[in-house]
Structures are given as C-alpha cells and as structure tokens.
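Priority: medium. Attachment 1 of 2:
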C-alpha cells in the first residue's frame, strides 16, 4: 500500500512538472532583461533617452543608406542652374520608361493629366487651378528643371523626394519629357541599346546617353501608355 502511495505521489509530481513546461520559453529566467527587451512605443516619452523621446533625431552628418546629396539649392538661382546643367543619369530604357509611367500615374496624373496637358481630374474639377501643360513655352521645361521641381516642390505642388527614390524621380523625369515631346509633335524617342548600357556600366566607353550619341533600339510599342498618352 505504501509503495502504491509513493508511486502515486511521484506520478502527480511528474505530471505537475510537465504541465508547467513551455517549449517556447525557458522555465526559469534568472536575468529576464537579457531575454526580453523593454518595449518602447514609437514617439513615446521616456526619461531613459537623451531628449526624452524614443524617436531620436539622426546623428548630425549622417545620411540614409542609398541616399545621394543634391547639389542644387532650393532657390531661383538653384532652379535656373539645374534647368541649364542637370541631366538625367538613368539610361532611357523600356524598363525605366514603364516604371516612370506607373509612378507618374500614381503621383502626377491626377493634376497634370495622362497626356501632360494640365487637364488632370483635380484640374478639371477646379480643385487646383493653373496647372500648365508640359510644352508650355513660358516654362520650357528640361530634364533638370523637372527633377528640381519634383525634388523641392513648387507653389501648390509639394516635394516628392520623400515618396520616391532618386532613381524613381529620374524615371518619372524620362516619362514627363516623353509627354512633352508628344505634345510638341516630336517622334517617340528610341530606347538605348542594352549592350551600350552594359559597356558604360563596365567603364569600357564614355558616352553621354542623354545626347543620343549612341546606337538605339526601337522605342515604346507595348507600353500601357506611350509618350503620346495613347492607350494600347
């Protein structure tokens, strides 16, 4: 009888130990802060941080990974300099054109219109007034001026530097200049040949892709929206 009692006690003790076990967490944590960090709410106030807030300002002089400095200031002189000197560093490829088209439809078309004629949905509803066409002679936009305005914003148009990367801004730049050419009645620009791009990437040749001084392949023929704004 005593043996049965002892065996029953052992089973109960063993069962209690098993029932309290958690395979995903140690049973004993002698230093729990080493295992589970304190969770701070974003923008929450905590005395442990230097300025009293969890979200600290970036260290002075630090830059975001992949970010490149923009050398033109947000001034009249800076815009004029960008307009005259700044060139699109991205090759005019089908991939960049299609991506520029997609981004344009997301950020720009609602005001500037799918053809770049200043007749977007908001302009038609008179929610925003005075949206110019891309071929407006008074503005005479260039690759540099388009990028500068997208980067800093102008008048009622805000900056898009936080919504798009530098490369994405330049993709939209390509598409906008294509819309301008279409409004001016110019022929569609030819895409840059892939082999030329590869050679330039490898440093074998030093050719300005923006001046059309390289061989090219046929232009956009299968885009959702071509440079003239016509749907396929």
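Attachment 2 of 2:
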């Amino acid at each position: 009888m005593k043996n049965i009692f002892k065996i029953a006690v052992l089973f109960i003790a063993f069962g209690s130990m098993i029932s309290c076990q958690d395979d995903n967490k140690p049973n004993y944590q002698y230093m729990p802060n080493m295992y589970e960090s304190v969770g701070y709410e974003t923008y929450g106030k905590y005395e442990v941080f230097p300025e009293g807030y969890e979200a600290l300002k970036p260290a002075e002089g630090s830059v975001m990974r992949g970010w490149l400095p923009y050398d033109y200031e947000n001034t009249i002189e800076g815009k004029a300099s960008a307009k005259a000197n700044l060139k699109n560093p991205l090759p005019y490829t089908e991939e960049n054109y299609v991506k520029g088209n997609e981004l344009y439809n997301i950020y720009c078309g609602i005001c500037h219109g799918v053809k770049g004629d200043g007749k977007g949905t908001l302009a038609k509803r008179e929610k925003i007034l005075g949206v110019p066409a891309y071929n407006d002679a008074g503005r005479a936009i260039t690759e540099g001026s388009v990028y500068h305005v997208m980067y800093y914003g102008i008048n009622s148009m805000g900056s898009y530097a936080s919504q798009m990367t530098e490369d994405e801004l330049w993709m939209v730049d390509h598409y906008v200049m294509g819309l301008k050419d279409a409004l001016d009645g110019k022929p569609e620009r030819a895409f840059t040949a892939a082999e030329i791009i590869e050679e330039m990437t490898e440093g074998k040749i030093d050719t300005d892709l923006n001046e059309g001084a390289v061989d090219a392949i046929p232009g956009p023929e299968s885009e959702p929206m071509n440079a003239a704004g016509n749907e396929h």
